[in-house]
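Reproducibility note. Readers wishing to regenerate the assembly model reported in the main text can use the exact inputs given here. Chain order matters: entities are listed in the order in which they were concatenated for prediction.
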Amino acid sequence: MIRLPAREHRRLVAIHGWTGVGLGLLLYVVVATGTVAVLAREIGAWSSGTLATRAPLSRALDAAVGRAIVDAPPGLRDTVDLSAAADDRLAVSLRGPAGPDARGIDLDVAPDGAVLRRRDGPAADIEDADPPGALAAFLVDLHVRLYVPAPWGYAVTGVAGLALLAAALSGFAIHRHLLKDIFTLRRGARPGLTARDRHNMAGAWALPFAVVLAVTGSVFSWSASAGFPALAWMSYGGDREALFAALAGPPPPADPTPAPRADLDAVMADAAARAGAAPTYVRLARPGRADARITVYAAPPAGALTGHTLVYDGASGTLLEDRRAFGRVASVGGTLYGLMAPLHFGDFAGPASKVAWAALGLCSCVATLGGIRLWLARRDDRASALLDRCTAIVGLGLPFATAGAAAGFFAGLPGGGGPGWTEAGFLAAAAAATVAGIALPRRRVGPALSAATGIGLALLPALRWAAGEPGWGAALAAGRLAVPSGDVAVLAIAAAFLWTAAPAAMRDRRPFRPGRAVP
Amino acid sequence: MPPSTADRRDVLVRALLAGPGAAVATLLAVMGLSAALPPGPAGIDPITIPLVALPFIWAALFFHACLDPAPRRAALASLALCAVCAALVALRHGGAPAAAVP
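Running the prediction on these inputs yields the following structure tokens for the assembly.
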């Protein structure tokens, strides 16, 4: 801790408390959804039940992409984006010139090259409509902007990021025995003391992580909502496309002369060898013209925080640039901004760092909810009782609604699925949790929502199987551990919720009185 | 003992400085930093460095507004920062466009 005069210490305690109480529930929602979103790729592999074993961008692409370009109208060949979609399919997005009226075609290409799904129309309507990947995409979108329309959603999560920064820094300054708190949990003590120990312990473990998460999250949220528009106005007369072109590197001088396309498979093989890691995203700009470019974004190689971005001549296949960060050449700003993503997503050391990030996210959730309850325990009025009920509804309603989103996703799969089913499942479960939270006596809200979440999660593997997804035998035979390990993880979390519900139901038989902490 | 009028005014000034004041000053500081920074070898430093600095600038302004024993001094410091950054922004928009990409 930092030794501070008594007056400054009191003010920091007030900042810590009011930040947590005023914005604590928002903070909890953003951190909890982020904890789940860290594992979005693993959740996508589990929920889509993919059995193919070769990543789509590592397969031969040239023939399928060539067919997609030839089949598209000339006005929709300005850019062709390639990425991995759920169920081991290749997502091909063809777009016309950028703008509010931009149109496009999205294709889902199977491993054998067959087009499984084709969507065409206004770009805004066809994006993010990938049925098998809907659950993972929903969880990420929920975290990034809480389903509030842009740019306001980014501003809301940006406020949560700054609140987390204020709470973490003030917590660091006011905790008197930070190192001791990491290992102190007096289980046999009176409930208030145990609750305080739990808050201090979770907060102390999560403190460095919370600062990193708050800084990187604020950078992303405020960049999208206010930073990019303000800086585009500063340097480019408000032209945001020009600003993004500066970050990504400006396009070459226009040359519409027809030219043969470079062999995409040869380019991809060269890119994978140079980057030392698998490509994650590919953009073909103006294919079939003399000024064509192929940009390959690769994952970070082992031991590195950022990956390569390789730019090739789209006609000759010659390598033009090998970038390691934002901008065409290395710079302080590009390197710093490039570090934000791996530090926020926790994917810099593979599954180990992602699991660590998820665990620390869980600690932040425990510290946030525990902090609110500690604050409430010292107060005795109607407003505190209302906030206590809201805390129970949001704290346990969010996991229940997330289980509802997964249930809606699986329920919709036999009919084609899509984002609508996932969103409907989430909203229905959130509404049910809210109604139950209002209708039930306060002491019953926590155990009821815990039990409902546990039961809902426990049913998910059966729902997944009933929706026609592969069982354990087929998954293990194909060497895909994502399916059985996902089921086991979901069942373990379900057991944890059921375990917390049972003793809480027995413990909470006395009526709630404002001014006494509800365990 | 109930808080005096001076104490209430003190809290109100701090709340305004730490809330909307810090938000406006942070935005101006980000824009001023963008105007002041050289482009760097990639030409993107005036875009990326201010964005990365944003949460640190906000935290410094927020905690200064809350902890400075004299709220008037914190207000003056914020105003001075805003004035310098506004001048940098005005100079940029009065001169040639910057952040040229090499």
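We highlight two features of this model. Chain A has two domains: 6-50+140-221+349-507, 53-110+250-326. The first helix of chain A runs from residue 6 to 37.
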